[in-house]
Amino acid sequence: MTADVQGNFANPAVDTQSWYVAIRSRDVRPGQIASYPLLNRRIAIYRDRSGVVHALDARCPHLGADLGQGRIVDDEVQCAFHNWRFGADGKCRFAPGTVNPPERQARIYPVQEGWGLVWIFNGPRPLFALPSPDAETPYRVIVPSAQQINCHPHLVVGNGLDTRHLETLHSMRFTAPPKLCVSDFEVTAIVRGRPNSRFLRWITGSSSRDIVARFSAIGGNLAWASVLKPVNFHVLFTGQPGEQGGCKTQTVVFLPKEVGMKPLQALALLYFLLHRDRGVLERLDFHPAFAADDEPLRLLSDVVNRMPIW
């Protein structure tokens, strides 16, 4: 990463507000607490007796002990160091030897569970919702293991907006110019085309009809990709700072819940749209020398540079 990068976009010193994957849901059990490295800090996560997951800064607002080393007492977090207790709202509820609890506040995070994952929002309240498929359409959900890529998360997540590389790296022939849509926290590109390879057109079901795909980068650390034709499926991409730098990625794939060729076509399409990218991203030394063809990525950088930090 070169030194000429400024602002929030692709800046390793900045974590903008977004949804991030914390842990797998199965790793947090009722009445237990643990802390995890995330976003250049430690975050304590626990599940209360009713099954609701909570997250708060692991740094105790008393003297800084790791709250993940404590325990859950009556659905409150008890610090292992001095037995101070904090409620789900982060406020101190009890401290030994005091009549009135000290006015101390631990930072808490909005939490949502989905697809076997615990998500936290790095801000006081979510600025946007986690994307998800139509609830009325059945999908087969696949959640592979997280991966590590030696590239900044904004560039990994925004890769789908680089529509030009679909032609140059993936040998796709556009049958219509890509369309762009921009909102407060989102940039969307809609592409239509076919692979140049006759074999790929056959295996992806695009011999006689176009591939139509919509890719949305949301806030810089989330992306939602929908292939609309010739087979409909969705992929949720996330990227967050890795413990050793680079990007820790997690994908959630929503395949057609059908018997036959459609799931196989969906996987073939996914491979066609993504293969070879990782090798390029791993060696990318980014600097923002955007050209005219880079307008989608430039728009994403504008969105991310306006994103708040917490």
Task: Characterize the structure shown.
The protein is of the alpha+beta class and 310 residues long. The protein has 2 domains: 19-121, Rieske [2Fe-2S] iron-sulphur domain (Rieske Iron-sulfur Protein, 3-layer Sandwich); 139-306, Alpha-Beta Complex (Naphthalene 1,2-dioxygenase Alpha Subunit, Chain A, domain 1), CATH 3.90.380. It has 6 helices and 19 strands. The chain has helices at residues 153-157, 164-168, 198-204, 262-274, 277-282, 295-306; strands at 19-24, 33-38, 41-47, 53-57, 71-73, 76-78, 85-86, 92-94, 108-109, 111-114, 117-121, 139-142, 147-149, 172-182, 186-195, 211-218, 222-229, 233-241, 247-256. The strands form 4 sheets. Strands 12, 13, 14, 15, 16, 17, 18 and 19 form an 8-stranded antiparallel β-sheet that branches. A hairpin with a 2-residue loop joins strand 10 (111-114) and strand 11 (117-121). The longest helix is centred in the C-terminal third of the chain and has 13 residues, at 262-274.
CATH superfamily of the largest domain: Naphthalene 1,2-dioxygenase Alpha Subunit, Chain A, domain 1
Number of strands: 19
Average pLDDT reading: 92
CATH class annotation of the largest domain: Alpha Beta
The CATH topology of the largest domain, please? Naphthalene 1,2-dioxygenase Alpha Subunit, Chain A, domain 1
Shape: elongated
